[in-house]
């Protein structure tokens, strides 16, 4: 059993925001692998698929980004995935340009709070993560508004392409393992022109403090 987790924030107002590229990518994995219809499980949306004779569990935590670990821990415990060699987490990354992806075998959260919460709940950094670049906000922009804002028109084609590439990288991870996927995909992608329009914040004061997060 392989477990692939896509990180994001639940709710329609967060659809297609920068922080939700993990959700978008995992939805493409589900489509490409003809996954079962999703159902509520492990405090998330959950589906199952078969790929190259391997069973895959797909999980979209619905706990808000900063609390992703409690959903992931429930799935890891249920499927007895400790050690966590068979766990892949897909998330956004501010330090990668739009159009780039990077696969890591393990390591720190690198400032991604959903990954940080997973590390805290698992008490381990030893799981693979697939990072999808969203780029740094331009000077003067608030980082929270940036990650909770939607991609601009100049970035739309690149995001459509890179999330498809990331979905295929996740499927290759299932069959080929981390080392081969790192060699194949970590240098893929050319950043598009920067979108200079000010994003419209997606958060509001009705959300519990800190849940949507960075």
TrEMBL record:
Keywords: Cytoplasm, Hydrolase, RNA-binding, tRNA-binding
InterPro entries hit by this protein: Pept_tRNA_hydro (IPR001328), Pept_tRNA_hydro_sf (IPR036416)
PANTHER family tied to this protein: PEPTIDYL-TRNA HYDROLASE
GO cellular component, one term: cytoplasm
Pfam families the UniProt entry points to: Pept_tRNA_hydro
Biological process annotations from GO: protein quality control for misfolded or incompletely synthesized proteins; rescue of stalled ribosome
Active-site residue numbers: 19
Residues engaged in binding tRNA: 14, 64, 66
Site (Stabilizes the basic form of H active site to accept a proton) location in chain: 92
Glycoprotein listed as a keyword: no
Similarity field: Belongs to the PTH family.
EC class: hydrolase
Catalytic activity from the UniProt record: an N-acyl-L-alpha-aminoacyl-tRNA + H2O = an N-acyl-L-amino acid + a tRNA + H(+)
Name by which UniProt lists this protein: Peptidyl-tRNA hydrolase
Gene giving rise to this polypeptide: pth
Segments of this protein annotated with the region Disordered: 184-214
Organism, scientific name: Rubripirellula amarantea
Compositionally biased intervals (Basic residues): 190-199
Listed SUPFAM superfamilies: Peptidyl-tRNA hydrolase-like
């Amino acid at each position: 059993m392989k477990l692939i987790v896509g990180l994001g924030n639940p709710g329609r107002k967060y659809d297609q925001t920068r922080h939700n590229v993990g959700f978008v990518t995992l939805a493409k994995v589900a489509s490409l692998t003809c996954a079962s219809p999703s159902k509520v499980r492990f405090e998330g949306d959950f589906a199952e698929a078969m790929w190259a004779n391997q069973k895959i569990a797909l999980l979209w935590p619905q706990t808000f980004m900063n609390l992703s670990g409690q959903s992931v821990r429930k799935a890891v415990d249920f499927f007895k995935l400790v050690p966590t060699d068979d766990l892949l987490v897909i998330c956004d990354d501010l330090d990668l340009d739009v159009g780039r992806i990077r696969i890591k075998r393990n390591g720190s959260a690198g400032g991604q709070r959903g990954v940080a919460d997973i590390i805290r709940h698992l008490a381990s950094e030893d799981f693979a993560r697939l990072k999808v670049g969203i780029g740094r906000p331009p000077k003067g922009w608030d980082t929270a508004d940036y990650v909770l804002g939607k991609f601009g028109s100049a970035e739309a084609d690149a995001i459509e392409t890179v999330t498809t590439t990331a979905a295929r990288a996740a499927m290759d991870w299932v069959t080929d393992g981390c080392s081969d996927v790192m060699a194949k995909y970590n240098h893929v992608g050319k950043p598009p022109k920067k979108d200079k329009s000010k994003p419209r914040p997606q958060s509001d004061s009705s959300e519990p403090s800190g849940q949507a997060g960075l």
